[in-house]
Design brief:
With about 475 residues, this protein is an all-alpha fold. It has one domain. Helices cover about 85% and strands about 0% of the residues.
Length: about 475
C-alpha cells in the first residue's frame, strides 16, 4: 500500500504540476490581466457564491461513494445506475435555490446570466467528480490522475487560442472563459462516464425511492460537512463583494492573491484523493496506518513550509510577475493567505483520515466552528481592512480547525507524538527562514534567488531528517514497479 501510494502520488503530482502550472501561470493569469479587476472580481465572487450551494449537487455523495467503492468494489454497477438520476434531480433543486438566493441578494441581470452559466458548469463538474470517485475507489489512480487534469487541458487549448492566437478580433470577455470551462467540464465528464460504463458493465439508470431514502440517510453527514466547509472556504470573496461599496474590485484583488495559493493547495488536495480510498481500505482491513500517515505528513510538511517561507520574502515579486494591476494590495493579501497552506495541508491529511474512519460527527462540529469563525471575523475585519481582512479571517479559521482535527485524529488513532521530532520541525522552519533571508540578495535576479533557496531547503529537509534518504530510495523503487 505504501509503494502504491507513493507511485501514484508522484504520477498525480507530476501530471497536475505540468498542466495546472500552465493553467495558473498562463491561462488564468492571462484572463485576469485581459479583463478589468472588477470584471474578474464579479466572476470570482459569483463562482464562489455558486460553490456555497454545491452541497445541493452532491449531498456528500462523492466522499460517501469513494469510501464505499474502495471497500466494496462489486457495488459499482448497482450504485452508479441509481445515483446518476439522483444527480440530475439534485441539479434542478440546486439551480432553483441558487437563483432564488441570488435574486434576493439583489444581483442584476448580467450577474444572473453569468451565474446561469456557472451553475451549468458546476453540474458537469459535480458529475465529473462523482464519476472520478468511482474510478479512484477502484484504485485506478493513474486513470483518475489523467481525468483530474483533462478539463484544465481543454480550457488551456481554448483560452490559448482566444488570448494569444490573434483570431479573436474583439476584446477578451469573461464570458469566453466561462464558456471554455463549461465545454471542458462536459467533455471530461463524458470521458469519465464512458470509463465507468466499461468498468461497471451495462447500466440502466433507474429511480428507486427506497434507495434514494437510504442514500440520503447514509450520506447526509457528509453533506453537512461539505456545506460547512464550503462556507468557511469559499465565503470570503462573496462577503467582500457584498459588504463593500467597491466589493467587485476588492474581490478581484483577493482573487489575484488567492489564485496562486489555491494552485499550491491543489498539491495537498491531490494527496487526499489518494489517501481517502487508501485509508478506507486500510481501516477496513485493520492494517497499520502509521507508515502512510508519516510519509504523507513529511512530504506535505516540506512542501508547505518551503512555499510559505518563500512567499513571505518574494510575495511582491510573484504578484508583480503574474499581474499588471493592484500589485501592492495583492501581495499583502497573498503573504497572509500563503500561511493558510500549512493548516489546509494538515486538514487534507487528518481530515481525510477522520472521513475514512467515518468520524463525521467530529468533522461537522469542527467545520461548524470554522464557518462561524470565518464569517464572524469577516464581518468585523472586511469593512476596516478590505480584502486583507478576509485573508486574516481565513487564516484564523483554517488554523483553529486544522489543530482541532489533528488533536482528534491523534486521540482516535493513538498516534504517538515524538518530542524530538517536533523540535526538529521547529528548528527546520527556523533554519529555512534564516537561510532564505541570507540568500535574498545573493544575486541581482530574485527568481534565481528562489531557485537557490529552494535547493537549500531540500538539503535542509535531509539535514533535519524531515525527509530521509531511505524514503527517496523507496520512492525511486516504487516508481519503477
Amino acid at each position: 500500500m505504501r509503494k502504491r501510494f507513493v507511485t501514484n502520488l508522484f504520477f498525480l503530482l507530476t501530471l497536475n504540476i505540468l498542466i495546472k502550472s500552465f493553467w495558473i501561470l498562463g491561462v488564468d493569469r492571462g484572463v485576469q490581466n485581459a479583463v478589468a479587476a472588477e470584471e474578474y472580481g464579479l466572476y470570482f465572487a459569483l463562482l464562489n457564491f455558486s460553490f456555497l450551494f454545491n452541497i445541493l449537487l452532491d449531498f456528500g455523495l462523492t466522499n460517501y461513494n469513494n469510501r464505499l467503492i474502495a471497500q466494496h468494489p462489486h457495488l459499482l454497477s448497482k450504485y452508479i445506475s441509481q445515483l446518476i438520476p439522483i444527480k440530475f434531480a439534485m441539479a434542478i433543486i440546486f439551480t432553483i435555490i441558487v437563483f432564488a438566493v441570488a435574486i434576493s441578494l439583489g444581483y442584476d441581470a448580467y450577474s444572473l446570466k453569468l451565474l446561469s452559466l456557472l451553475c451549468l458548469s458546476q453540474f458537469f463538474s459535480s458529475i465529473l467528480i462523482y464519476l472520478r470517485s468511482n474510478i479512484s475507489g477502484l484504485m485506478l489512480f493513474k486513470t483518475d490522475s489523467i481525468l483530474s487534469v483533462l478539463d484544465k487541458f481543454i480550457v488551456i487549448i481554448f483560452c490559448s487560442i482566444l488570448l494569444w492566437s490573434g483570431l479573436l478580433k474583439t476584446e477578451f470577455k469573461i464570458e469566453y472563459f466561462i464558456y471554455s470551462q463549461l465545454i471542458a467540464y462536459f467533455i471530461a465528464a463524458l470521458v469519465a462516464f464512458i470509463i465507468c460504463v466499461k468498468k461497471a458493465g451495462f447500466l440502466k439508470p433507474k429511480w428507486n425511492y427506497p434507495f434514494v431514502v437510504k442514500i440520503i440517510k447514509d450520506s447526509y453527514p457528509y453533506a453537512i460537512l461539505v456545506l460547512l466547509m464550503a462556507f468557511y472556504n469559499r465565503v470570503d470573496s462573496v462577503m467582500i463583494e457584498r459588504i463593500l461599496d467597491n466589493g467587485a474590485e476588492q474581490s478581484g484583488i483577493y482573487a489575484s492573491a488567492f489564485r496562486l495559493v489555491d494552485a499550491v493547495n491543489m498539491i495537498a488536495y491531490l494527496f487526499s484523493i489518494i489517501l481517502l480510498p487508501l485509508f478506507s481500505r486500510l481501516i477496513q482491513q485493520k492494517q497499520d496506518l502509521r507508515p502512510i500517515i508519516k510519509i504523507s505528513f513529511e512530504l506535505l510538511l516540506m512542501i508547505t513550509v518551503c512555499f510559505v517561507v518563500l512567499s513571505q520574502f518574494y510575495g511582491f515579486n510573484l504578484m508583480d510577475l503574474m499581474y499588471n494591476k493592484h500589485i501592492e494590495e495583492s501581495s499583502e493579501v497573498f503573504k497572509i493567505l500563503s500561511i493558510c497552506f500549512i493548516p489546509i495541508s494538515m486538514t487534507y491529511i487528518f481530515g481525510t483520515l477522520l472521513t475514512a474512519n467515518g468520524s463525521l460527527k467530529y468533522l461537522n462540529i469542527v467545520a461548524s466552528i470554522g464557518m462561524l469563525l470565518n464569517m464572524g471575523i469577516n464581518f468585523i475585519l472586511v469593512p476596516k481592512f478590505l480584502a486583507l481582512g478576509a485573508a486574516y479571517s481565513s487564516l484564523t479559521a483554517q488554523t483553529i480547525t486544522a489543530l482541532i482535527q489533528a488533536i482528534i485524529a491523534i486521540k482516535i488513532f493513538k498516534i504517538r507524538l515524538d518530542i524530538l521530532y517536533i523540535l526538529r520541525i521547529l528548528f527546520f522552519i527556523l533554519a529555512l527562514i534564516v537561510a532564505v533571508f541570507l540568500l535574498k540578495d545573493i544575486t541581482s535576479l530574485w527568481i534565481y534567488n528562489i531557485v537557490i533557496s529552494s535547493a537549500l531547503m531540500i538539503v535542509l529537509s535531509f539535514v533535519f531528517k524531515i525527509f530521509k534518504i531511505k524514503d527517496v530510495i523507496l520512492l525511486f523503487k516504487a516508481s519503477r514497479e
